[in-house]
Amino acid sequence: MFRFRSWFPILVLCLTSLVTFGCDGCKKADNKPQVIHELPEVPAPAHHLADLFVPKPEETYSAFRTHIGGPLALLPSTFPSMVVTSLGLTTQLLEQIDGKSPMVGVMTDDGSRLVVVVGIHVRDGNRTIQLMTEGADAKYSAKPAERGVIVLEPKPTLTSRVATLGVAGHYLMTAEKAQDLVECGPYVSGTLSKRTGIEGQIVVETHQDALKGPLAKRMREAWASFKAAREKEDDKLRKERGRSPDFGEPAAALADVGDKVETIVSVLSDLKRAQLRIDSDAVGIHALLTMVPASIEGVAAKEFSSLVVGDLAPLLAMPQDTVVGLLVRDDEASRELGAKKHAEGIEKLLGERIKEPENNKVKEAMLQWSKGRGDYLAASLRWTRDEQEAIARGAVRDRAEFERGIRSVLGLLAIPAIREPVEHHLGKLTLSNVQKVGPGFAMHVDRNKKVPEGQPAQSTSFDVAWRVDDSTFEARVKPDGKAWLTKDEEKRPSLADHPTTSKIFAGLGADASFVLFFDPQLFLSTLVPPSMKAKETNAPFVIAYGGANQQGWFKLALSHASARELIKMLGRQELK
User: Fold this and answer.
1) Residue of 455, 403, 464, 450 whose CA lies nearest to 422
2) Total domains, the chain
3) What are the beta bridge partners of residue 175?
4) Of the candidates 198, 231, 250, which is a domain's last residue?
């Protein structure tokens, strides 16, 4: 007969043991670091520099990889696989990497080190930790949570660590050091992850304290380092040769550039905020830096409000085989100020090599040119296998003053201090008098290039030709400049007619003050034999500066061909 009382002590002992062991197991499980599913919003970390946003990382990664191609085509095909591969993680994490949620990051700079912490959204923070820390092949162990951040410490067997990793909320984070994760992780996971309304594939935002603090400091330090290196080179050459440079004073040139660097730093320091947006489409890569002044009376606001802006028509009208193109818009006051600065710069650069009467000629020529010229100037350098040509077109404010100005500028070549460095690089020049040719004027130039002894002489000739009416001018430097003045020129395709180049320009808008165009691939394609057809004949690259609504902007646009070549160049540099 079953006696309950006799079995009761044994039953109690078994239950007690079960509960005891079970509780011990619970305690062990509780000791495992657990992520806080949603961290609260916190202020930006100390020495905050900028925030990074990639709203749709999977789409962005795919767009850049597909559009640019070339070296990027060798990368993993999806965003999760790229993350896992680049960080050296287990492939089990592929299911956790969420490419449809924003990737966010923060940058700080304490003056000694630039810190970058990036957060990649995962579907489950706890599961991510489990996959990285459990199992026989686990490469990490989880440290206790600090400020909501669980740092994943590499085990001794992990000898090829790429970065320091951690988890905060549902974000896998990467940084250089564990302390970076602890200090910046709560802001990345708790604050930046909640930011909405960000437009653009890649966006970087910064603020006034960062612009006038660490960014300004680094720009000044970079310039000071460059300047010191050039001054050291100059001093070394002076000692080796026992004399000052032949054609100019490097210190004066450095001082002029230094003034321009300081002007840029002053404008950036006076901004309330700045945003860099980078997008890729079927045409190319487009970057836009938007600059918002801190006040309407500051340096930045005055700079942006003084800009003369307009469309790109004068540059787009240049020939399609333009290798380098330029468009500048300005007003009378800025032209006059620029003329004075250019004259002063030439005087300082040449130093004792140019005397006072000649200095006056330089000042007069610069002022006449500036007073005669109108509100825009466009220039183009054409370069083909068969022909090279420089073109300048622009508005005319005062026809008589412009005519005097262009003659005065050409007359500066008679000044020895100017002529000698020009001939040092181009060869000996023989200039004719200015002649009236058809509707314009021309000056013939014979050039004899200096060659090593025993080699045949090299000589070329070309014309400097121009024509002016009451509102515009056009000038050409080409072998048959006189023929250009007297004959109807055959219409050539323009930059606006090129399918790729025109689309690259389209994103710049109609409020540009300065535009620089460069197509290195077009130039390089002229250097290979005609039998070797270049795979890509065009790779346009454009930098522009302008403004609207009291804000300033910089824009950069480059074709995917340019991006491919740039990536290859950086890769070769990395291998050196």
Assistant:
1) 450
2) 2
3) 164
4) 198
Tokens at 491, concatenated: 């219409």
* Residue 148: how many other CB atoms lie within 10 Å: 19
Torsion angle defined by CA atoms of residues 127, 129, 135 and 138, in that order, rounded to the nearest 10 degrees: 140
| Residues spanned by the domain of 157 | 28-198
With H, G, I as helix, E, B as strand and everything else as coil, classify residue 448: strand
CA angle 425, 543, 554 (to 5 degrees): 135
Structure-block tokens of residue 56 = 């749709």
Residue 45: inside a domain: yes
Work out the angle at residue 530's Cα, subtended by the Cα atoms of residues 526 and 535, and round it to the nearest 5 degrees: 70
* 381-406 tens-digit pLDDT: 998 888 899 999 999 999 999 999 99
Residue 404 lies in a domain: no
Burial 333-347 (b: 16+ CB within 10 A, else e): ebbeeebeebbbbbb
pTM for the whole thing? Answer: 0.87
Residue 33 included in any domain:
yes
State how far the Cα of 484 lies from the Cα of 487, in Å rounded to an integer: 6
Which pLDDT value is given to residue 574? Answer: 61
What pLDDT, in 10s, does the model give residues 454-479? 787 788 899 999 999 999 999 999 99
